[in-house]
Amino acid sequence: MSMKKLSLIPLLVLGLHAYAQHDDASRFASLITTDGLQKHLTIIAGEEMQGRETGTEGQRKAAAYIESQFKLTGLGMPEGMGNYQQFYPLHKDSMTGCKLMADGRELAQGTDYIIPATTNDNGNFSSSSFVFVGYGIEDPNYNDYTGLDVKGKTIILFLGEPKKDGKYLVNGTTRSSEWTFPGLSKKLALAAQKGAAGVLVINPNMETFNKRTVDNSKKTNMYYPRNKGDKKLNFANLSHAPASILLGNTFDSLLKRSKNNLPFKKDELFEKNIPVLYNYTEQREVINASNVLGIVEGTDKKDEYVFLTAHYDHLGMHDGKIYYGADDDGSGTAGIIHMAEAFAKAKKAGKGPRRTVVFMAVSGEEKGLLGSEYYSENPVYPMEKTSVDLNIDMVGRIDTERKTADTLNYVYVVGHDKLSSDLPVINEGVNNKYCNLVLDYKFDDPNDPNRIYFRSDHYNFARKGVPVLFFYDGMLKSDYHKPTDTIDKINWPLFEKRVRMIFHTAWEMANRDNMLKRDIPLPESALQR
Prior knowledge:
The chain is an alpha/beta fold.
């Protein structure tokens, strides 16, 4: 994986602005200081914020602090919001009751079966018989449903899919198909299409349920409401003991076949006149979280937008310990607050940006990029008029795995080769002129096993076609997602230098004549997280 730092690119190629404009950029970039960053980060990653977990009092305190700084700085409120905070709902579900009966016998929840709250909603079903459908797959290369009528009946199926000679039958390759992942959701959708009443699922590799699995099945994590919309049928997971009773004396051979990914024979698929009754209820808690937005309005191009984003949420408290999230992503949050101050002072001095610069602190990132997903589906400003999103997630430390001589003078830049050919030209140009950081593109390797491009909030802009750059220090080990991600680990001079470089990049993108080109299609693979 290569590391790249360009030599100075001629000004004519860059199309950079006149010397006086650059003098202004330097003047206001110099307002970004270690002291300013430290002031904000000390509060954001302080004990009072309790780790800033989305949906908690700590997150609300952090949002209030960011809003207060935007107001104090003189940032405008996005028109039409009526507030600096864009609130959005998250759901959290908990099971309130369940019942599963087979052949007149009530099965024991937690021992005989579990009903995962994550993928079930309030519902019930009953049938006078069940049909064992093997893996529950229908495909031109393998079909468990041939000759079976499942309408109005309960289906019993195994997770997984069949192989032959080391290759999966469905796709003829050594890699599993969609019948394995997403797997169950695809099987449920097919069962619903065929008119089944409900589904009982057997995991061939889970004979019984441990306490943690049982406890986790009774509740969901916080989720964006659309996440449960794909469910087609209610279902329960069976342990092997009740499955053996239902399927009878053939269960052991069927289990062995599924464990070895062998195809099921037609005479192994059958219907039994055993009635099944299922009932499941849950209650839903709605939790409001928020993104915090402030703007420095542009001049002649104020209806075009440059976004600077960072997520202010972290992991909260666990076992009495605060997960401070100083680097992740207190550093990015402090960075956008301080850059907002610099842009606001430029505007006050009559040197404001041509485009409107939007500073957005996002929540829900640690829950699955939820806040930025909400924004992307409910944008305050048109995505087609959003020139770029510069996202900052962890820029305060040194990657402990980086063993090169430039560890005190680098930043990872992600997304440089996607969506717009303007991205690297502008970013490298201002970096070479003002900062001379090593810009490392390691995480843009298409074979990056960490899939960094998909793991922060810029992704929800990129999937809507907005060019993005993501700035990152590479911390994936050491204190990552641990209570020890604390402010004393920050490398302040490098933190300051990185934020100044991002400021220069935003300044150029906000003041150039044209929005960034959108001339590189996002690969289809990049649209599938």
